[in-house]
Amino acid sequence: MATFLSHETCPTIKNILLLDSEGKRVAVKYYSDEWPTNSAKLAFEKSIFTKTHKTNARTEAEITMVENNIIIYKFVQDLHFFVTGGDDENELILATVLQGFFDAVTLLLRNNVDQREALENLDMILLCLDEIVDGGIILETDGSIIAGKVATHSVDDGAPLSEQTISQALATAREHLTRSLLK
Amino acid sequence: MAQPLVKKDDDRDEEADYSPFLGIEKGAVLQEARVFNDPQLDARRCSQVITKLLYLLNQGDSFTKVEATEVFFAVTKLFQSKDNGLRRMVYLIIKDLSPSADEVIIVTSSLMKDMNSRTDMYRANAIRVLCRITDGTLLTQIERYLKQAIVDKNPVVASAALVSGIHLLQTTPEIVKRWSNEVQEAVQSRAALVQFHALALLHQIRQNDRLAVSKLVTSLTKGAVRSPLAQCLLIRYTSQVIRETGVNSQTGDRPFYDYLESCLRHKAEMVIFEAAKAITELSNVTTRELTPAITVLQLLLSSSKPVLRFAAVRTLNKVAMTHPMAVTNCNIDMESLISDQNRSIATLAITTLLKTGNESSVDRLMKQITNFMSDIADEFKIVVVEAIRSLCLKFPLKYRSLMNFLSNILREEGGFEYKKAIVDSVVLLIRDIPDAKESGLLHLCEFIEDCEFTYLSTQILHFLGNEGPKTSDPSKYIRYIYNRVILENATVRASAVSTLAKFGALVDSLKPRIFILLRRCLFDNDDEVRDRATLYLNSLGDGSVAETDKDVKEFLFGSLDIPLTNMETTLRNYAQNPTEEPFDINSVPREVKSLPLVEKKAPGKKPTPLGPPPPAPTSASDAYERLLSSIPEFANFGKLFKSSVPVELTEAETEYAVNVVKHIFDHYVVFQYNCTNTIPEQLLENVTVIVDASEAEEFSEVGVKPLKSLPYDTPAQTFVAFERPEGTPAVGKFSNTLRFTVKEVDTSTGEAEDDGVEDEYQLEDFEVVAADYILKVGVSNFRNAWESMDPDTERIDEYGLGPRESLVEAVNAVISLLGLQPCEGTETVPNNSRSHACLLSGVYIGNAKVLVRLSFGMDSSKEVAMKLAVRSDDVNVSEAIHEIVASG
């Protein structure tokens, strides 16, 4: 019956993790007390990292189950994004949260999604986590809205991302182009 | 300095693995945090320091109480700054520091100011922070603002207040419940997420009010919900309402099913899937209801997104457990998933196919699985093995390819759980498919030649001892068994000795050779091994080719039909009271106390190291037996056969609480009335129960044991004994009246008055039923037990049980009517099944063993039919069981 009860409540996120290519933390946020101590958290991170790091989750988000939890994950460069939910949770809701997180980070880091960029803008990543989920309950899933909320507050940039000036937009576009040519 | 080489390496590392936090150290950062106190605040620098602090917390560093308090107080100074970005970081770190109640007060006024700010972001965040760190007392102060915020024009502010409400409902529900008008208004919001949060909160506020939830669902399913997340919530609430209302009995329609079905055509995949899943989880779902959901899931199977494929295949896998036929349409899509990159998806696809597959596809499937097994983890392999086991039982003709598969994977590397799953499967196949026996046993023999798990070796040896001698050529197993005696540890050696002895006992021609082997074991360096060898050499005769005594066979093969925990308790008692008398196994009570663990295999001859017996439960029947034998009037009634569970004869919370326990003896019945006086002002004396047995003709009263005095709140017993024809299961109804003398008690002194008044108190009736004459005694292996009973005692008949709500109800009714012990977990009826077989066992009065096989079937109009087959030690008993069912 316990599973039924949890099912009747609101969709719940147990944690959102951003790890590097060695499984070390960049930024993590736990909303469930299923992992009470730091060592329990580290053990969980290690187990999902070892289980997933060999898979190819670069084009589409992948999914697996660890310790009766559903984990949706996606990798970009040397960053590994994870969202965890209970085993009775709607997988697609979890995937939407992951996508929102991923899109917001991509926007905030202006497409330079890698570990170094993420650490240099750790304040934005942390604010981003704060705007996606509050105590396990989903606040927002649209990446551009999330990024907008975070960017309004960033020190060096007063305007929301959606209201970029034309020159900024052009700069971003140019950056895109150069990168694709260099590849 | 002194390590130039190391330094160089560091430089290179930094190059490749640069991090702004390299070499960060808590002490230094705490020092840096002093900038928070500067009169001229540098917002950018303060933000950086907060980020560093958050980084440390995020990496799992913890601050001591003093450090945290210091940082917290410094941070509160930053509210002076007008910088937006800095303020956000301040909010963040306040939440992460989780300040204590007396610290919270410091920031309350700053946060309350922000809650009323004109900047939306400030309002939204201040609400979230304040609600996170506050306690109930502060909440009443800010309640007004929160109510306003719920209906704020800005969706972010409204969502912040609603989500905070959801959290606060856990701690201070009485306050949050007052907001339902505002929340109700927010449900109508045009902002998608506000609607989602409002709906979640409204449902949680009303979740204990069924009618309100039902109303909520009725109004919203008419289509005012915009956000996909809110739609998912609504689907969940709808299934809850459906579950609580049930099917409309007249039209057979399910309320709200149409709504769920319409969600299958929603534009968001999240909603489509939620609806499909909800439909598959409806209780007693029909094929017609399932079909649209299955179709949708089938489409998702070929999605390019792994998450969708996983979600679909996992749901179909669950459906396949109850409705395998409904899923067969998806088989082609499933088969292509076997080669899916994502191993979780592949495993789910395989196990689904194994559940739904037909006989002709088995061979092809096995080939695909063999390729797949080598690259998945043990946990997946176990799932596959279990699926194969059930497939094999479904298609016994295919045992050859399945057995081959099992023997192949048995030879590969694997952990204990995995190997155990395989061995269990092979054992099950051998037991249920006679043709598979010889090859299966040989596979097991080969396995124990190189098995690192003592537990599995002993289990297999035990099994081999029972099954091996009955094969066409028992001698070929001896080599494997004796190898164990030479090569293994003491536990396995001892098991091997027992197994050898079983071969010796059953196969007369092998006996002389077995004797030679057993004699060699007499020089083993382990006590247990030597003891067993000696015991068997002495009991098996003189080593010539001669038939073994029946008693010896009984000793070797007879399963111990006494619960081991009872045996342990009795032995312990025996050991504590030294006596000259030898231990009598018949003195062990046979009744199963706690829920019996029905093991798949017969209990080993000794407790295996892996399964220590559970602590002996305190036995009620022991206590009863001691109580009754202490009463001289009942001392000559003989051995107590069974005591029933107490039957309440009064309503709860009446003046006198009385229940009765029925004690059944061979010739007598004793009713034990447990009485409790719940009135402090009364003392009862000379308490007896007047029993009217006019509706129980075969019983005649033989004695009464009154209760002298019954003070307040001290339970005590009075007894009434009846005689009845010996050994018969006489039944009847008894009506009871409590008769006593009441004396007033002065509660201040506790003294009773001298004069009392006679009074009576009507109790409820109770019955002695057939089940009172039957003891619940489980058997470990029903099939073996059934076959060892004389087939001539079998009586079969069919009964119509009339229309029933469900099969579960019918099965439970018959089990409780007969009062027998369900075996091998057959009392649990899978959801929605239309037929079920149930195995029962027990002991009938007069110590006759009874085994019962029940087959239930249910037709479309819910009429249940039952076939009842009984075997027992006595034909009359078999007939008596039928009599019980026929009259019950």
UniProtKB/TrEMBL annotation, chain A:
GO terms for biological process: protein transport; retrograde vesicle-mediated transport, Golgi to endoplasmic reticulum. Keywords: Cytoplasm, Cytoplasmic vesicle, ER-Golgi transport, Golgi apparatus, Membrane, Protein transport, Transport. GO terms for cellular component: COPI vesicle coat; Golgi membrane. It is found in: Cytoplasm; Golgi apparatus membrane; Cytoplasmic vesicle, COPI-coated vesicle membrane. It is a peripheral membrane protein. Residues 12-151 form the AP complex mu/sigma subunit domain. The keyword Transport applies. It holds the Pfam family Clat_adaptor_s. Oligomeric complex that consists of at least the alpha, beta, beta', gamma, delta, epsilon and zeta subunits. The coatomer is a cytosolic protein complex that binds to dilysine motifs and reversibly associates with Golgi non-clathrin-coated vesicles, which further mediate biosynthetic protein transport from the ER, via the Golgi up to the trans Golgi network. Coatomer complex is required for budding from Golgi membranes, and is essential for the retrograde Golgi-to-ER transport of dilysine-tagged proteins. The zeta subunit may be involved in regulating the coat assembly and, hence, the rate of biosynthetic protein transport due to its association-dissociation properties with the coatomer complex. Belongs to the adaptor complexes small subunit family. This is Coatomer subunit zeta. It comes from Salvia divinorum. The gene is COPZ1.
From TrEMBL, chain B:
It is found in: Cytoplasm; Golgi apparatus membrane; Cytoplasmic vesicle, COPI-coated vesicle membrane. One of its GO terms (cellular component) is Golgi membrane. Residues 598-621 are annotated as: Disordered. GO terms for biological process: protein transport; vesicle-mediated transport. Its main location: cytoplasm. Residues 623-768 form the Coatomer gamma subunit appendage Ig-like subdomain domain. Residues 771-885 form the Coatomer subunit gamma C-terminal domain. It comes from the Eukaryota. Keywords: Cytoplasm, Cytoplasmic vesicle, ER-Golgi transport, Golgi apparatus, Membrane, Protein transport, Repeat, Transport. InterPro entries: ARM-like (IPR011989), ARM-type_fold (IPR016024), Clathrin/coatomer_adapt-like_N (IPR002553), Clathrin_app_Ig-like_sf (IPR013041), Coatomer/calthrin_app_sub_C (IPR009028), Coatomer_g_Cpla (IPR032154), Coatomer_gsu (IPR017106), Coatomer_gsu_app_Ig-like_dom (IPR013040). Residues 27-541 form the Clathrin/coatomer adaptor adaptin-like N-terminal domain. It is a peripheral membrane protein. The keyword Protein transport applies. The keyword Methyltransferase does not apply. Gene3D superfamilies: Coatomer, gamma subunit, appendage domain (2.60.40.1480), Leucine-rich Repeat Variant (1.25.10.10), TATA-Binding Protein (3.30.310.10). Belongs to the COPG family. Oligomeric complex that consists of at least the alpha, beta, beta', gamma, delta, epsilon and zeta subunits. The coatomer is a cytosolic protein complex that binds to dilysine motifs and reversibly associates with Golgi non-clathrin-coated vesicles, which further mediate biosynthetic protein transport from the ER, via the Golgi up to the trans Golgi network. Coatomer complex is required for budding from Golgi membranes, and is essential for the retrograde Golgi-to-ER transport of dilysine-tagged proteins. This is Coatomer subunit gamma. It comes from Salvia divinorum.
